[in-house]
C-alpha cells in the first residue's frame, strides 16, 4: 500500500515536470492576449479623445490618431535623413527616445506582431530593455518606428524562447515568402520574409535603414540557448 502511494506521488511529480512548460506557455499566451486586447481598447478610447492640435501646428489634422501617426512618420523621416547617427552601439537600443506616455500609452506598448508560421502573437514595447524583453517583443530604439513607409526599417527583438514563453524560439522555421503582420495604433501592416542571416552582436550596420525599402527586421539570439550571435530575418512590405 505504501509503495503504491509513493509510486502515484512520483508519477504525479513526473507529470508535473513534463506539463509545467506547457502550462507556463499557456499562461503567457493569455497574458499577451490580455495586453493586446487592452491596447486595442486604448486605441478605441484614444480615437474619442480630443486634443488641442493647434498647439502642434497641425490644424488640418482631423483627429488625434492621425496627428500621432504624422509625428511618428516625421520621426522616421528624420532618422533616415540623419543616418541614424545616435545608433552607436547595442546599448543605444534600450533607451526610449520617442515616448508614448504623453499620449496615454503608459506602458510604451506600440502595437503587436503576429507570425502565423511560428504560431506567435507578441506585444511590442518601445526600447529593448531587459524588462520589456521579458514581457514580449521590443522595438530597438534608433530604428524606424513600426508605422511603415519607404526608407524605414523597424527592428523588433525578442528572446530565443523562455521557460515561460516561446517568443522567437522558432524563428528558424521562417522561410522566404512567409507572412508577418504588424499592428500599430493606426493600422495593420503586412510583410513577407525576403532574407535570413546570422550576424555578430556588434554588426549594427545590418539593421540600418535601407534606402527605398519598407522593412521589418526580426532579431534574436543564436544559436538556441546561447548568446554568441544574432539570427536576423528581413521582411518587406507587401
Structural key phrases:
single chain; 238 residues; alpha+beta; Sortase, Chain: A; eight-stranded mixed beta barrel; 3 helices; 8 strands; 30% helix
Number of structurally distinct domains: 1
Largest sheet: 8 strands, mixed, barrel
Q: What share of residues are in beta strands?
A: 15-25%
Q: Please, how many helices?
A: 3
Would you report the number of β strands? Answer: 8
Show unreliable segments. 8-13, 15-20, 50-62
The oligomerization state is single chain
Descriptive report:
The chain has 238 residues and is an alpha+beta fold. The protein has a single domain, classed as Sortase, Chain: A. 30% of the residues lie in helices and 25% in strands. It is built from 3 helices and 8 strands, in the order ααββαββββββ. It has an 8-stranded mixed barrel. The longest helix has 47 residues, at 2-48. Mean pLDDT is 84; it is low at 8-13, 15-20 and 50-62.
Summarize the structure.
With 238 residues, the protein is α+β, with helices and mostly antiparallel strands. The protein has helices spanning 2-48, 64-81, 130-135; strands spanning 109-115, 120-126, 137-139, 152-157, 179-184, 188-199, 214-222, 229-237.
Topology:
Layout: H1 2-48, H2 64-81, E1 109-115, E2 120-126, H3 130-135, E3 137-139, E4 152-157, E5 179-184, E6 188-199, E7 214-222, E8 229-237
Parallel strand pairs: 2-3, 4-7
Antiparallel strand pairs: 1-2, 1-5, 3-4, 5-6, 6-8, 7-8
